[in-house]
Amino acid sequence: MHHLHHHGYLWVGPKHRFDEEALRRPPHPEPPPVGSRPELVQRYREVAAEFPTCDLPPLETRNWLRKPRAQVRGTWPEASDAAAWLRDRLTEYAPRFMSDAQRETLRPDTLVASAEARLGWGGDVSLGYYLERPAYLSLALVTCSSTDESRALPCPGL
User: Fold this and answer.
1) pLDDT above 50: residue 152
2) Cα separation of 122 and 99, whole Å?
3) Whole-prediction pTM value?
4) Cβ neighbours of residue 22 closer than 8 Å, sequence gap 6 or more
5) Residue 127 near residue 11, CB atoms below 8 Å
6) What is the β-pairing status of strands 74-76 and 135-145?
């Protein structure tokens, strides 16, 4: 029996920061080879130093697990509780959504039900919304299994 649990992450900030994709990718596993252009080496060092601590949402949802434990907003053994956290955040931020249309198309019940189902089979959930300019909201739920070694990323809760 796998012991699944779920970690919640939330980021709100200027959209231009969210668009800094280089900082949202983990560093390449291998440093640049000896003799590489100095700017490549410098860039690698910057990303290697910044990615783990940078609060920006990673491009791949699972890479949240590489971030400091302090960035975890909550951990739940039950998918339903993790989904309830998601519902609460959507309700909290909905008044700041940029457009009425977006508020009207937000269907928390449907979103929460699909999030819960996805977490239930071990999937991850990632949502993003424009708030009033220039803000952007990113929400993520990452499923962790205490017994699944194949995922190879450390669990921040253990």
Assistant:
1) yes
2) 33
3) 0.85
4) 43, 47
5) no
6) unpaired
Whether residue 95 contacts residue 102, with contact meaning beta carbons closer than 8 Å, is answered with no
Nearest to 75 by CA among 142, 146, 152: 142
* Cα 118 to Cα 9, 71, 82, distances in angstroms: 16, 22, 11
Cα 119 versus chain centre, distance: 14
> Under 8 Å CB-to-CB from 123, ≥6 apart: which residues?
143
pLDDT digits (tens, 9 = 90+) for 26-77: 888 888 999 999 999 998 998 888 888 899 999 999 999 989 889 999 999 9
3-class DSSP string for the chain? CCCEEEEEEEEEEEHHHHCCHHHHCCCCCCCCCCCCCHHHHHHHHHHHHHCCCCCCCCCCHHHHHHCCHHHCCEEECCHHHHHHHHHHHHHHHHHHECCHHHHHHCCHHHHHHHHHHHHHCCCCEEEEEEECCCEEEEEEEEEEECCCHHHCCCCCCC
